[in-house]
Specification:
Helix content is about 30%, strand content about 20%. By secondary structure, it is of the alpha/beta class. It has an eight-stranded mixed sheet, sandwiched between helices. A two-stranded antiparallel sheet has the order 5-9. It has helices at about 15-25, 65-80, 90-95, 185-190, 195, 205-230; strands at about 1-5, 25-30, 50, 85, 100-105, 110-115, 115-120, 135-140, 145, 155, 165-170, 170-175.
Length: about 250
């Protein structure tokens, strides 16, 4: 069975439906919620890594010193080409761990259901190629990746913030958005962050809208999760080496 390490930085962002999709695709999940649950010192024994989102900043080590260990694992995964999927905060942690930069978004938060646009590199990517041109996603973030790591290839963008999805070293992925949420989780975030919730379009966080949005997300990202498990299991070939940038050492 394909064994995946799931790092859950925040109790408010569980692996949710994504965990179900990974399990039904044949993965065994080892979910760690730091600091209560200690992180492994290395990725030995794991076929892949997933890092979820959270309310803290990617460099908020003063309040959450264990973030340094998360970044270390993400850097190790990127350097050794361990199949990785990093979501929202996870993508920001991956970016700063490998030479990118993160800051609060100058155009304000992105909140609620939305779409991202595939870039050229996505059309030949093993995970993104079969997805629609405008995949459905869920946004809920203040901080953004302002500078991608040097070795990253851009896979998806939005007009507001361009660095929505990227790939490094053939099989290491970061996505700024969420695919693991449920309507209940999003509503809880909105209640906890009312000033962010107010910035979304009218009706975007109503129950029927969220139910419909999550159905669209499942239709698109459930097959993506299956392909990620196949990638981690060695059943799906990783992306070709970038012709314009050197891979991580």
């Amino acid at each position: 069975m394909t064994r995946l390490l799931i790092i859950q930085p925040d109790a408010s962002d569980p692996v949710g439906p994504l965990g179900e999709w990974l399990t039904e695709a044949g993965a065994e999940l080892d979910v760690r919620l730091p600091p209560e649950q200690e992180l492994p010192s290395s990725l030995d024994g794991y076929d892949g890594l997933i890092c979820l989102g959270g309310g803290m900043g990617a460099l908020d080590d003063a309040k959450h010193p264990w973030l340094a260990d998360v970044r270390k694992l993400l850097a190790a995964a990127a350097g050794k080409a361990v199949p990785t999927l990093a979501l929202c905060l996870g993508s920001q942690l991956l970016a700063v761990a490998t030479g990118g930069q993160v800051a609060e978004g100058e155009s304000g938060p992105e909140v609620g259901p939305g779409l991202v646009s595939k870039k050229d590199a996505a059309w030949v990517d093993p995970l993104f190629a079969d997805m629609p041109f405008l995949p459905d996603v869920l946004q809920f973030h203040r901080d953004v990746i302002t500078v991608l790591p040097q070795s990253a290839e851009l896979l998806a963008s939005t007009p507001k913030y361009p660095h929505q999805a990227f790939r490094m070293n053939r099989c290491v992925y970061g996505v700024q958005f969420h695919i693991e949420t449920t309507p209940d989780v999003v509503r809880a975030w909105a209640e906890a962050e009312p000033e962010m919730a107010e910035l979304t379009r009218p009706g975007a966080l109503e129950e029927e809208t969220l139910i419909s949005a999550h159905a669209e997300i499942a239709e698109t990202w459930r097959p993506f999760a299956r392909r990620f498990v196949q990638l981690a299991a060695g059943q799906l070939e990783a992306a070709p080496e970038s012709q314009r940038q050197l891979p991580l050492a």
